[in-house]
């Protein structure tokens, strides 16, 4: 198996192991992170009722409006903006604590920036 495919398969295995252990409830929903080469997405999910409470991605208009004023537009900066927006949306919906689901990605770089920005805005996990 070539290296790129092996890396994807291994990440999916880690993601499956993580999802077996964590579950979002109405009291403490799951903050789910999706990372692609160009974009970053985050959503807050209640797994019991199978509903998405809030979601935001780097392709949304909210993120584009904030980044238009910023000078730096690195992927880590975009992730930090997404973390702040998802925390604000969660507060508006009455969610203060979440379970963090990093989907097998290393807690480093963009994933870490998103998580720390959400924590800075008052989201507890």
Describe this structure in words.
There is one protein chain. The protein has 125 residues and is an alpha+beta fold. It has a four-stranded mixed beta sheet, covered by helices on one side. A hairpin with a 4-residue loop joins strand 2 and strand 3. Helix 2 packs across helix 3. The longest helix is centred in the first third of the chain and has 19 residues. The radius of gyration is 15 Å and the shape is globular. The N and C termini lie far apart (37 Å). The mean pLDDT is 93.
Question: What oligomerization state is this entry in?
Answer: single chain
Please state the overall shape, judged from the principal axes of the Cα atoms: globular
Tell me the Rg in angstroms. 15 Å
In sequence order, what are the helices and strands, one letter per element? HEEEHHEH
Distance between the termini: 37 Å
Largest sheet: 4 strands, mixed
Quick check: average pLDDT?
93
- Number of DSSP E strands: 4
Number of helices: 4
Strand percentage lies at 15-25%
Structural class: alpha+beta
User: Share of helix among residues?
Assistant: 40-55%
Weakly predicted, low-confidence segments? none
Which strand order does the major sheet show?
3-2-1-4
Write the SSE topology:
Elements: H1 3-21, E1 30-35, E2 40-46, E3 51-57, H2 61-69, H3 75-92, E4 99-101, H4 110-120
Parallel strand pairs: 1-4
Antiparallel strand pairs: 1-2, 2-3
Helix pairs in contact: 2-3, 3-4
Key structural traits:
125 residues, alpha+beta, 4-stranded mixed β-sheet, 46% helix
In short:
The protein has 125 residues and is of the alpha+beta class. Helix content is 46%, strand content 18%.
């Amino acid at each position: 198996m070539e290296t790129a495919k092996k890396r994807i398969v291994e990440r999916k295995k880690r993601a499956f192991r993580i999802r077996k252990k964590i579950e979002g409830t109405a009291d403490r929903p799951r903050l789910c992170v999706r990372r692609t080469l160009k974009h970053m997405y985050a959503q807050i999910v209640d797994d019991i009722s199978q509903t998405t409470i809030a979601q935001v991605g780097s392709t949304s208009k909210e993120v584009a409006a904030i980044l238009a004023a910023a000078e730096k537009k690195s992927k880590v900066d975009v992730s930090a903006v997404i973390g702040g927006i998802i925390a604000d949306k969660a507060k508006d919906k009455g969610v203060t604590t979440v379970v963090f689901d990093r989907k097998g990605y290393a807690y480093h770089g963009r994933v870490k920036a998103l998580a720390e920005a959400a924590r800075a805005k008052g989201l507890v996990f």
